[in-house]
Each structure stands twice: as C-alpha cells, then as structure tokens.
C-alpha cells in the first residue's frame, strides 16, 4: 500500500510539473513563422499563404508608414482547395510571385505552377520542373525560399543566404548572380539568410518576413527603414498573428 501511495504521489507531481511546463510554453509559444508565401496580386489585394490556408489583405498604397490598422479582409483565412484556387494541387506553398504579365507562379520544392490571374485558375500542363529551360540562369533547381517582383522589370529570388535578380522581359537571370545577402547588397538588412518571404506592397515599401518578425524596406532609397525588425502582431499585421 505504501508503494502504491508513493507511486500515486510521484505521478501526481509529475503531471503537475508537466502541466506547468505546457502552460508556461502556452503563454510564450508562437508558431514557427508568420507566413509561408505572399504576393501582391496587382488588383489592390495581397495574398498570404501558410500551410493549407490563405489570407487576403486589401493593399492601401496611402499607408506609406507602418501598416497599423491594415486588416485582413472579412471571412479569412480560407482553405487552399479547388474551389478557391482552381487547378492548384498543392498545399504548403514555398513561394509565389506575380510576374506582372497576367501570370503568377507558385513554387514548391523543385517545381512550379503558373497561374492565370484573369482566368483565376492554374494553366494546364503544370506543375513543371525548375530547370534551365523554364527558368534560365536560376541555379536552384531544388526550390526557393522567397520571390518578389520589384516592379521595375526585375524579380528577386532568395534562397538561404543568397539571392538572384531575374529579368522578366529577357526571361533569364542577370549575370553575376547569385550574390550574398549582406549589408552591401541589401543595406540595413540584418538577416543574411533564412528569409521566409518578401511582399512588395505598392506603397514604395517591401516587407521581408522571417519567422515571426518583419523588416520594412524602402525601395527607392534601397535600404531597410530604421527601427526594424518588428514582431508580427495584432497591432502591426492584424490577421497574420497566430493564424
């Protein structure tokens, strides 16, 4: 009986200890990253993707400062499925970029899907492999971390600690790339690797996301704004916090 009582006491103490640990973690736990992919659709909407869901924000170009009060559209997040994204066979997208020619490209692993924005469905014949035929000069055939259309005929692709500048009109990577992500190539950018995504908002700013923080980058000045990174929170990105 004494052994039984001792066992009960030990189990009770262990349970209470674990409960306290989980509770403590519950207070401080945040998801691994705020978003997996995102792109400005060019119609006043920005789409964010994470896991099997997506979020739609209304892009307000007049918000040239922080996006305080910029909320997700009502009814989001929604599931990524055949109804919301016809022809999209993937979940958990790595990156997405608006090509600026009526098409968007979704990337996952070593493949991509081209999406027709006006028709609102994936083009037939996809996914296709990322290779020298489909993306000339892009060295990463096993996938990318992030991509953003800079609005000047160039797309930037990021992977690990490097980036590639891609010329849309010539449909090939510019010579001399990849280059390192550092303070010389991206002034003020303290993150030299592991960028989750980059979104050009249309207000002269680009937003870099890494885990649960973001950096605002001034495109014209070609440098990160002071005071960053900041946390992705209910104050800075309503709707993107803990979805």
Keywords for this entry:
243 residues; mainly beta; Hemopexin; 2 domains; five-stranded antiparallel beta sheet; 1 helix; globular
Total number of distinct structural domains: 2
| Share of helical residues | 10-25%
Q: Structural class from helices and strands? A: mainly beta
Name of the CATH homologous superfamily of the largest domain: Hemopexin-like domain
For the record, the CATH class of the largest domain is Mainly Beta
Mean pLDDT, to the nearest integer, reads 86
Number of helices: 1
Number of strands: 19
* SSE run: HEEEEEEEEEEEEEEEEEEE
Determine the CATH topology of the largest domain: Hemopexin
Q: How far do the termini sit from each other?
A: 50 Å
Tell me about the biggest sheet?
5 strands, antiparallel
Tell me the Rg in angstroms: 21 Å
Give me the CATH architecture of the largest domain, please: 4 Propeller
Strand content range: 25-35%
| Overall morphology | globular
Task: Outline the structure in words.
This protein is mainly beta. It folds into 2 domains: 1-30; 34-231, Hemopexin (4 Propeller), CATH 2.110.10. The chain has 1 helix and 19 strands. Strands 5, 6, 7, 8 and 9 form a 5-stranded antiparallel sheet that branches. A hairpin with a 2-residue loop joins strand 16 and strand 17 (213-218). The longest helix has 27 residues, at 2-28. The chain is globular. Residues 4-30 have low confidence and may be disordered.
